[in-house]
Amino acid sequence: MIPIVQTVYGRKGNCFKAAMASIFEIEDDLDTLPRNHGSGWEDEWVDWLQQFGLTMLCIKTSSGTRYLKDVYWVGTFRCKPTLKHPWPTYHAVVMLGDEIVWNPQGFGLPHDWGLEKPVHNGWYFIVQDPGTRTRTPIVR
After folding, report:
1. Alpha carbon of 7 to those of 101, 102, 138: distances in Å?
2. Where are the domains of the chain?
3. Are 91 and 17 in contact (CB under 8 A)?
4. 75 FRET partner, CA 20 to 30 A, in 14, 56, 84, 113?
């Protein structure tokens, strides 16, 4: 995992792209990755993950959810409302087990600053065909 900072902020920010780029160690322009908003964005990521022999699984989480240890995954949190952003928004971070290990906002704040716990959604990456040898940089 290498820290990649998001380049677009706000409701249409690219924090999910930056979290994915961090996990997959992709230092290219974030615009080369699938989009992370609008109808069908999950399908675009599933198509993109196929190059690694992976697919994506979303797990709705709640307090008390147990997380896989030593596995990188993307967690999305609801953001605490502010005067500037009073509407519900979500922010993606890189998780390792049950810890936030990278927040792509890049402001130097604590990784969980402004995030309401527990994790809203967990995005895990699963090998599609275990018999196929793939490059999987997501497990330490």
Report:
1. 19, 15, 23
2. 15-127
3. no
4. 84
Q: Which long-range contacts (CB under 8 A, 24 or more apart) does 32-40 make?
A: 36/92, 37/12
Q: What are phi and psi of 18, to 5 degrees?
A: -65, -40
In this prediction, residues 89-115 reach a mean pLDDT of 90
The token pair at 86 is 């009073």
- Report the C-alpha gap between 111 and 102 in whole angstroms: 6
- Per-residue 3-state assignment (H helix, E strand, C coil) for the chain: CCCCCCCCCCCCCCHHHHHHHHHCCCCCCHHHCCCCCCCCHHHHHHHHHHHHCEEEEEEECCCCCCCCCCEEEEEEEEECCCCCCCCCCEEEEEEECCEEEECCCCCCCCCCCCEEEEEEEEEEEEECCCCCCCCCCCEC
pLDDT tens figures, 30-44: 999 998 888 889 999
pLDDT at position 95 is 95
Give the pLDDT score at 102.
96
